Amino acid sequence: METRPEKKKARARAALVGAAFLMATSAIGPGFLTQTAAFTGSLGASFGFVILVSLLMSAAAQLNIWRVLCRTGLRGQDAANRLVKGLGYALAALIALGGLAFNIGNVGGGALGLNALAGVPDSIGCVMTGLAAAVVFLFKQARSIVDRVVKYLGALMLLVILAVVIATKPPLGEAARNTVLPSADAGSLFPAVLTLLGGTVGGYITFAGAHRLIDAGVTGEAGMKRAQRSALLGVGLAAAFRVLLFLAVLGVVTRFPGIDLTDPSKNAAIVGADYGGVSNPAAYAFRIGAGELAYRFAGVVLLAASVTSVIGAAYTSVSFLKTFHPAIERHENAVIIAFIAVSTAVMTALGGAARLLVVVSALNGLILPLSLGVCLAASQSKRIMGEDYRHPVWLFIAGVIVVIAAAYVGVKGISGLFG
């Protein structure tokens, strides 16, 4: 029989793995699946280079933020308020609004998945996705359930995508070469790197795992070291998701030169079949690369990615709202369910999931420079970090580079939306 200290250690280990999966699955949402399919279609094997660079940049952002927050035990908004009074409230409002926008797109992604899986109409698919995510927070032990749900659904996604990779037989040698020495021109690679960065570490995503660890009490000097291991695990999981999905789609692009994954109606002559004009690039790529069963598999992947992202977005966004009133923390699960309900209602009314997924990536790209910038500034403050703390110089410099790149993509993204 386990003693109390052993149970506490087991819960802490579960939280470390759960936080890693929460971060990874939040970053690998339906928007990333759509972007990866579209960019692989246009860039081919050179998209491997885009994934490599974006992974390095996202790792720099995650390691900086997790290290600072778990060392201090402060959530992102509380660290910002310690830095500049009132800044935390502004950051919390921005991330909550951005999380709501992202969550609306995530619910729509679930509808795309259910449509591919079982032909479920979009409006019903949105409601089913929202309900699946909300059910988790009906239980008192919601946090531990979140850890298990994101872990199991994440593992399912990895296995399904791996099966499709085997079926599509991508050119691994070409992918490896282009990951290091891309054949595409820099003018097409740079925008793809910045777009992927905004969609995978923008807004709430960088805080998802760190806030989960703070809620689990993984803080202080010892907590910081464990948080770094959890962050590296999360980055590794995200890398596995991204590389496998890229290879699955690359096999299709290589097999059918000239294919347009964003518009199936143009490809009847290329693939030898007319699949209509529904825009669901990832599911479409699975379908023509490995058949109808793979198309259903794509629905499973999209649905799992959407449900885990809805959970991550709602949980993390509400963790920022706790700053505004103590009642939010007392009724956290109810507020999370309400957050999911609003997202579901808006998506059901609006429709247009594929378009919205691109828009919210651009909006959330604006938040990353502020949130990461706050943590970088906090890392240099002895008042916040303590007299004996020393932030690694290389990590700080890497974070500054990401802030500059993210600020650029945020401005460009918003300019593009207004254009």
Characterization of this structure:
The model has no long low-confidence stretch (mean pLDDT 83). This protein is mainly α. The protein is globular and about 65 Å long. 56% of the residues are buried. It has one domain: Amino acid/polyamine transporter I (Up-down Bundle), CATH 1.20.1740.10. It is 81% helix and 0% strand. The longest helix has 36 residues, at 220-255. The chain has helices at 4-27, 30-43, 47-72, 76-83, 87-118, 122-135, 142-168, 172-180, 186-201, 205-215, 220-255, 268-271, 281-290, 292-321, 326-330, 332-350, 353-365, 367-379, 382-385, 393-418.
Strand % is: under 5%
The residue-averaged pLDDT reads 83
Q: Give, in order, the helices and strands.
A: HHHHHHHHHHHHHHHHHHHH
Within the CATH hierarchy, at the fold level, what is the topology?
Amino acid/polyamine transporter I
- Radius of gyration, taken over Cα atoms and rounded to an integer in Å: 21 Å
- The SS-based structural class is mainly alpha
Q: What is the chains' assembly state? A: single chain
CATH architecture: Up-down Bundle
